[in-house]
Amino acid sequence: MLAAIALALLIVLLSLIAGRLVLHALGATQPTWLAGPVGFAALTIVAPLAIRLPGRAVTAAVLIAVALVAGLVATRHTMQAWRNGHWVGLVVIALTVLAAALPFAISGHSGVLGEGIYTNDQAAQLYWTDWLQNGFGPEPSAVAFGYPVGPQSLVGAVAEATGASLVDAFNGLLLAIPALTGLAALAALERLRPVAQIVVSGLVALPFLGASFLAQSAFKETAMALLVVAFAVTLGLASARGTLGLGEGTPILRRRAAIGAGAVIAGHPVAGTLPVELPMSGISIHDAARRLAMSCHLSLVISGQVTATVWPRQPLVYCDGALDAATRWAGLEKRHFGRLTANGGPLRLGGVFRIADLRPSVNDPEQRDAPVHGIHGADPLPRGATVNYVFQGALVRDVLEQLARDGHVEADIAASVGGQVTVFTSAADWDVVLAAVLDAADLGYRYDPRSKRLKIAPLQELDGGGDPAPRPGRTEK
To answer: Which residues of the chain carry a pLDDT beneath 50?
Structure first.
């Protein structure tokens, strides 16, 4: 535990130095505790770039150390020292680090917290960081996918520089993040009395939810909370008052420093844009779709005939590629249903994805995943409300009846309509969902706007009655 505490203090120190140099370069020479989170963001932007160079973690550690020392030397005559009140920040650092270390003291060891109780995520983090540190073996698939590895790279560099184990270095990161969060809050509390500053900063640094994540060895969530707090404080720095530590200089200089610090914080790669862990090995595509729909706010319709299983277990990928990866690995066909723009151009954002078994007529992968343009067919459907559905393995007939009710039309569903369908939607247009469900079940429709009667039947039944039935979701000339 002592090694983790020492490494936490080292990470805080490095962050404070880096942050002061970044803020100084932006025109802010007075000290501010906001330098801690700004420096942490800057280090975790630089570290993953440096650790890819020849020499790996050794090179990263040397480059970071040289840059910080050179920066201190270059600014020694212009960077102002702390005049008073610095002891408050030191107390906040000490108390938050010690409080964050309580789980280690209670458990009686300084290994991985929460393993076997909640998650084994730390095993993957250690594996990725070991590869980043040394470069031995194949590149982990998560890293190859583009998973953000800023904190992991910083941990690898710190471990290499100190000779500490990766477990201790990661634990040091876990303890350092609450301390930096407390410093971010402290930057906005200088008008309070010292005791009040310490109490409030401590509460911001270790709220119940933050402590819960810490006890699971989870650093991404607490790091994102750190950046949210720091960004909120930075917005205050951009005001004309400049009362949060950057009060010197003209308003334009204060705004430049604040906006620059905010850009560093906002650009920090902690967790990317909604990375999602693809389901465990052997999970059905219906369960996989539910997880993706909930995590990425996607609207999905899956044919009940699909029985595919997602193999193998896959690491974190981004939402914009997760659905494509899941369907391709399972050998399925994915189509996008949506509403055309007013000028007949591409589909608007959103829409509904229909997943079904690969049809024999679709062999070209590009054609297989091509968007299906609009739902403006020979029988246009009325616009209606948006719907939020959670139907897993539901009867097609039941889903169609619910859609008709939400669309304020009268459904006439053929007796031959059967089967099941899985539907997960989030604020999707009812008629777009209807088009996707009909396509998934190989059904067609006729709609009479005068009676608001929607006739639904298998395609061959509708085709036998005259003109070919409108294929749901397709533009017909």
So the answer is: 116-119, 240, 242-247, 271-274, 279-280, 341-349, 361-378, 466-469, 471, 473-477
- In this structure, are 227 and 286 located in the same domain? no
Q: What is the pLDDT of residues 200-257, one digit of tens each?
A: 999 999 998 888 788 778 888 899 889 888 888 887 766 645 444 444 555 665 666 6
* H or E element in which residue 334 lies: strand 332-337
Cα–Cα distances (Å) from 451 to 256, 404, 415, 458, 460, in that order, read 63, 13, 21, 21, 24
- Supply the pLDDT for residue 84: 66
Phi-psi region of 436 (alpha: psi -120 to 50; beta: other; left: phi over 0): alpha
- Rounded Cα distance between 121 and 123, Å, is 5
Last residue of a domain, one of 266, 298, 320: 266
What is the signed CA dihedral for 24, 28, 31, 33, rounded to 10 degrees?
-90
Q: Retrieve residue 234's tokens.
A: 């930075």
- Prior bond of 251 cis (ω within 30°): no
pLDDT given at position 371: 41
33's tokens: 């505790």
Give the per-residue pLDDT at 202.
Answer: 92
What is the widest separation between alpha-carbon atoms in the chain? 89
Instruction: Give the tokens for residue 91.
Output: 């107390």
Closest to 473 (Cα-Cα) out of 322, 346, 339: 339
The torsion of the CA quartet 170, 175, 181, 184, rounded to 10 degrees, works out to -100
Domain membership of residue 271 (yes or no) is no
Q: Are 146 and 275 in contact (CB under 8 A)?
A: no
Q: Which two structure tokens, joined as six digits, stand for 287?
A: 């369960």
Pair (234, 333) in one structural domain? no
DSSP 250: -
CATH number for the domain including 425? 3.55.50.30
In this prediction, residue 163 carries a pLDDT of 94
The pLDDT of residue 476: 30
pLDDT at 6: 96
Q: Which domain holds residue 364?
A: 276-463
CA pair distance 44, 227, nearest whole angstrom: 12
- Four-residue CA torsion sign, 163, 165, 168, 174: positive
**pLDDT confidence of residue 243:** 45
User: Which of the listed residues 233, 266, 299 is the one where a domain comes to its end?
Assistant: 266
In contact, 183 and 34? CB cutoff 8 Å:
yes
pLDDT at 76: 87
